[in-house]
Amino acid sequence: MDRESNYTERTFFQGQPTGTGFEGRRAEIIHPTIAEVPSRVNEAINILRGNIQLSGSNIKAIAITSALANEGKSSIAFRFAKSMAGLGKKTIFIDSDIRNSIIQSRYGIVGKKKGLSEYLCGSISKDKIIYRTDDNCLDMIFTGALAPNPSELVSGPLFQELMEYVRGLYDYVIVDTCPLNLVIDGLLVAKQCDGTVLVVESGKTDRAQAEKAKQQMQYADIRILGAVLNKAPVHEKRYGYGYGYGYGYEPKDKKNSSDSAATDKNSTGK
């Protein structure tokens, strides 16, 4: 792609004509604070991005999930969305973990943001929960207020309607879900996506838990795109592949390091 066409893509959201669906977004611009990470982390995310792109042109909506909490799925999901936007792809990141969202606190986003729960309860239109970010190719949807019935909300017709709506507007829809083995919400959300990536934390998630998450997706007829082995120590300056595909890099003098292949420095690992 030449420089001129790349510029055109990256400024796609600016000055959109009426009737495209983008003019209804909130005027507020969000400025996520993203921690610096080692270059190997960014390389791992780029490899994940390449694998997803090679999965087929019909893969637009991608759920990022895990078997258990604090395995790094949210960090991977957001950095993955940023990576897609970095290519000039119109991307939206959706935080669907209504029960226990950490996205605002993780990325320094202050103030109450209306989001999924308000829309799914019928109190706001779907275009009004889309927030712009300081990356022209990346938008966000937050979880909104804590709701007592998340499973009922994401299983209703409004969530399906939202997914159809954003599919029509964006090149990629990246959805951060609840852990699969804890609540049903994650499966319900993943069912509305074109494919799912399972994040597995090295040294924490045992084979039985990972297998349980895999079986749940198979029973629900959810397409599994692959798995990321997160926080995996890799020795002797080589790349390592884990459960599905996982990436890490470790200098010789730091064996047994637990640096994440795709997790923020300041993250709690969710």
Task: Describe the structure in your own words.
The protein is of the alpha/beta class and 270 residues long. It has a single domain (39-254), classed as P-loop containing nucleotide triphosphate hydrolases (Rossmann fold). Helix content is 31%, strand content 16%. The protein has nine helices and eight strands. An eight-stranded mixed β-sheet has the order 1-4-5-3-6-2-7-8, sandwiched between helices. Strand 4 (131-133) and strand 5 (138-141) form a beta hairpin. Helix 2 (39-53) packs across helix 3 (73-86). It is globular. Residues 1-15 and 236-268 have low confidence and may be disordered.
Question: How would you briefly describe this protein structure?
Answer:
The chain is of the alpha/beta class. It has helices spanning 3-10, 39-53, 73-86, 103-106, 116-120, 150-154, 157-169, 185-190, 207-219, and strands at residues 26-30, 61-66, 91-95, 131-133, 138-141, 172-176, 195-201, 224-230. It contains nine helices and eight strands.
Question: Secondary-structure blueprint of this entry?
Answer:
Blueprint: H1 3-10, E1 26-30, H2 39-53, E2 61-66, H3 73-86, E3 91-95, H4 103-106, H5 116-120, E4 131-133, E5 138-141, H6 150-154, H7 157-169, E6 172-176, H8 185-190, E7 195-201, H9 207-219, E8 224-230
Helix pairs in contact: 2-3
Order of the strands making up the biggest sheet: 1-4-5-3-6-2-7-8
The count of domains is 1
Task: Spell the H/E element sequence.
Answer: HEHEHEHHEEHHEHEHE
Strand elements, count: 8
Mean of all residue-level pLDDT scores? 82
Low-confidence stretches: 1-15, 236-268
Helix content: 25-40%
Indicate the structural class. Answer: alpha/beta
Strand content: 15-25%
General form: globular
